[in-house]
Amino acid sequence: PGIVMDDDEARYQGGWVASNAQPTPIGDRYRHDGNTDRGKKSATFTATIAKAGDYEIRFLYSPHDNRSTGTKVTVTGAGEEKTFRINQREPAIKDGVHKALGIFHVEAGAEVRVTVSNEGADSYVIVDGVQILPVEIAREERSGKRPSGYAMSEPPAQSAPSPTPQRKPLEVQPVRSTSAAEVKGKTYDVV
User: Fold this and answer.
1) At residue 166, does pLDDT exceed 50?
2) Where does the pLDDT of residue 61 fall: very low under 50, low under 70, confident under 90, or very high at 90 and above?
3) Rounded Cα distance, 82 and 76, in Å
4) Which of 52, 27, 68 is nearest to 191 (CA)?
5) pTM above 0.70, yes or no
6) CB crowding 68-93: b at 16 or more within 10 Å, else e
7) pLDDT per residue over 97-112, tens digit each?
8) Cα separations (Å) of 96 from 8, 61, 155?
9) CB-count exposure of residue 53 (10 Å: 0-12, 13-18, 19+)
10) β partners of residue 141
C-alpha cells in the first residue's frame, strides 16, 4: 500500500552497480555504490503526494556485514529537510515491517524526495527502494492488524538442520599467481 518505488525508479548520480547477491525486500535486485567515489554518488526517489496527511517514510535495503554503518539518507519536501545516518548492517525489518525514517506531514500535491548518498559512508551503500505510507496503515502494520506485504523478513534466529544433504564447498586452487598489475583497475561484484 501507499507509494512503493523500486531501485529502478530512482535518479542516479555516479556509477551504481545492480546486484542480487543478497535477498531483496522489493523487486529482483538492488544497487550498490561499489564502495567507491565517496560523496560523488546519490540516488533520488521522487513522489507526488495526492492526499494531504501524515505519512511514514521507509528506506528499503537488504542488510549485510559489508554494508555502510553511516549511509546518508535525506528526506526533502514535506515542509522540511531531515538527514539520517542509517546502519545498513542492522536488520531493516522488525516484526515483519520495515523500519521508518520518520513520520512527515505532507500537503496534497507536494513533492517528496528521498536521497541516498555515499557521502561519509564507511563501506558499501545499498539502494533498494522507498515506501511512503499513510500513517494509519503503518500503525496497523506495526500493531499486527495487517501484513506489510514484504516477503523478506528478519533472518531466523537459528534454523533447524536441513533434511537434504549439504553441498560440499568447492575447493578452489589457483592455476597460477597473478601480479597486482594484472588485476589493477578491474572491478568485481562481491556484494
Assistant:
1) no
2) very high
3) 7
4) 68
5) yes
6) bebbbbbbbbbeeeeeeebebeeebb
7) 999 999 999 999 999 9
8) 24, 14, 11
9) middle
10) none
